[in-house]
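Recap for those who missed Tuesday's class. We walked through two folding examples back to back. For each one, the amino acid string is listed first and its predicted structure tokens come directly after. Nothing is annotated here on purpose, so try labeling regions yourself before you check the end of the notes.
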Amino acid sequence: MASPKTSRKRPRSYDPEKLRIAVITQFAAVRKAVEGLTPEQLAAPTRLGDWTVRELAAHFTMAVGMLPRGLAKPAPPAADLALMDYPSLTAPAAPAVAVGVQELAAGAPLSELYAEVTEGLDRYLPAGVDGGRPLVHRVGTMTLTDVLVTRAVELAVHTDDLNDALPDLALPVERQLLAAATRFLADALAAKAPGASTEVRIPPFAVVQCVEGPRHTRGTPPNVVETDPLTWIRLATGRTGWRLAVDDALVSASGERADLAALLPIMA
């Protein structure tokens, strides 16, 4: 994997085995947390519109359950969707996801949903999985590695949503999963606003250059944005706003091209 000090020139590569372990580990941690929630906690509101914690908990099983469901079927001939095409397709798919989550949460008990997905992961996502295997996603056919990257984003974002709804939970995000989500969303910004006038730093995981304008060649770039991984993920997915993050000193931005407000969020 490229060093986080290197700006993106080629599509980033991901290790499917590390992603597999990270997704399974995070899902297991979420399952343990959800199974310990009280009815009052499950009924608590979230920052996701009218979703309660119960709907959010059900969504985890939908987001991760697509892996064993897809892998249980014969592989399609080829992948037709590139990873960097994914962010623009999430918003159009959101209404169908919302309907599915409501139905899921109103159906089987959460314990059954989590047990079913866990069993499927054990059976269909073993060690040594072929990352190049095509897999049908809601928005197109992608390689398994690319789908695992999207699942890393889902798990990182929604674990943070769960912590926001229930602050005492303080459920950590697995490091490899957080790294993959951060890097993907940083690369998505660079793809959305190609250029080299602004450097976006998200230590310790990513550095990308973006935004059209004069290219710097030596020394400190004239336009620099820096933030931490969780703040970046919140910005990139619309959980927090640019101005609020800057005012709260969660983002430092210097230079006339360092205002990213018009480019955010990157995906729904």
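Example two. Treat it independently of the first, because the proteins are unrelated.
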Amino acid sequence: MLTWQIGLPATLASLVFGYLLGSIPFGLIVTRMAGLGDVRQIGSGNIGATNVLRTGNKKLAAVTLALDALKGTAAAAIASRWGLEAGIAAGFAAFLGHLYPVWLGFKGGKGVATYLGILLGLVPVMMPIFAAIWIATAYLTRFSSLSALVATAISPVVLYALGHEKVAALFVILTVMTWWKHKANISRLLNGTESRIGDKG
């Protein structure tokens, strides 16, 4: 049975810290700093790296990807100094902050980069496993969205198999949230209209 070993004040502090860090909209910040305007006005309107890539600037997309991942890593790793449960709470809140940032009317990204960053912060060995699943799926299908869906679906199973039960429970929740944010992609995958990696337009 999973038990929670830190007190309410520490849990609340971890949640607030994680949410504030996770809610930093790096995609919006870097595109504005680069003079490209509001990334929410192009493509899907999303603030994540995939939509930043639609500006045509691959470097900015890479920077956004790294920063969105690292905020998840930082939240989980820093809070983990007060115990695993604190890291889990902060990681969850960082993910929630990225998906629903208060500064942007609760309209954020889809969470894949932040998901990966939290994995790195809590169970570093999972990062190459997640990446390998994503790359293999992308190579076989050329669907970025499907690669994310498959990698997030498998990650909690691997975490549980490796003995990280509490972290696996967290990532079951994060996976459900990720799939919910990808519901439009899932619909397009099912009806055959989802764009493949490398497609123009």
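Answers for example two:
The chain is about 70% helix and 0% strand.
Residues 136 and 200 are 22 Å apart (CA to CA).
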